[in-house]
Design goal:
Layout (H helix, E strand, L loop, with lengths): L2 E5 L2 E3 L5 E8 L7 E7 L6 E6 L6 E3 L7 E6 L4 E6 L8 E8 L4 H7 L4 E2 L3 E5 L2
Parallel strand pairs: 2-11
Antiparallel strand pairs: 1-3, 3-8, 4-5, 4-9, 5-6, 7-8, 9-10, 9-11
C-alpha cells in the first residue's frame, strides 16, 4: 500500500525553525517528484516546494525562497523540508505529495499529484 506520512509539525515562534519529514512506503522514489504543499484556513492549497526524483532540481514558491530548503534521501525513502525564519503567514497544514513527473516546477505550479499524505499542522505564533 502506498503511503506518505508527514511529521515534524508543531507550534513555533516567529523567526523560529522547524524541519518536516515525509516518510514514504510502498513504492520506490526513483521516478517520482516529491512536493510539499500547504493550506491555510480559507485559502487554496499552494505548492511550497518540490524536488525532482534525482534531487538535482528544485522549485520554491516566491514566499518561501531563501527560508525553506527541500531535500531527499531516496535510500531512506524520506523527503525533508527545513523551514527557517518562520512567519505567522506560514501557518497552515503542510502536505507531502508524490507525482510521477520530471519537472518539480510543474508539480508545484499545477498542484496535480498522484498521492497525498494526511498533513501536519504548522503554527507560527508568539
Amino acid at each position: 500500500q502506498l503511503q506518505l506520512v508527514e511529521s515534524g509539525g508543531g507550534l513555533v515562534q516567529p523567526g523560529g525553525s522547524l524541519r518536516l519529514f515525509c516518510t514514504i512506503s510502498g513504492f520506490t522514489l526513483d521516478y517520482y517528484a516529491i512536493g510539499w504543499f500547504r493550506q491555510a484556513p480559507g485559502k487554496e492549497r499552494e505548492g511550497v516546494s518540490c524536488i525532482a526524483s534525482h534531487g538535482g532540481s528544485t522549485h520554491y514558491a516566491d514566499s518561501v525562497k531563501g527560508r525553506f530548503t527541500i531535500s531527499r534521501d531516496n535510500a531512506k525513502n524520506t523527503v525533508y523540508l527545513q523551514m527557517n525564519d518562520l512567519k505567522p503567514e506560514d501557518t497552515a497544514v503542510y502536505y507531502c505529495a508524490a507525482r510521477k513527473i520530471y519537472s518539480p516546477q510543474a508539480m508545484c505550479v499545477q498542484s496535480t499529484v498522484d498521492y497525498w499524505g494526511q498533513g501536519t499542522q504548522v503554527t507560527v505564533s508568539s
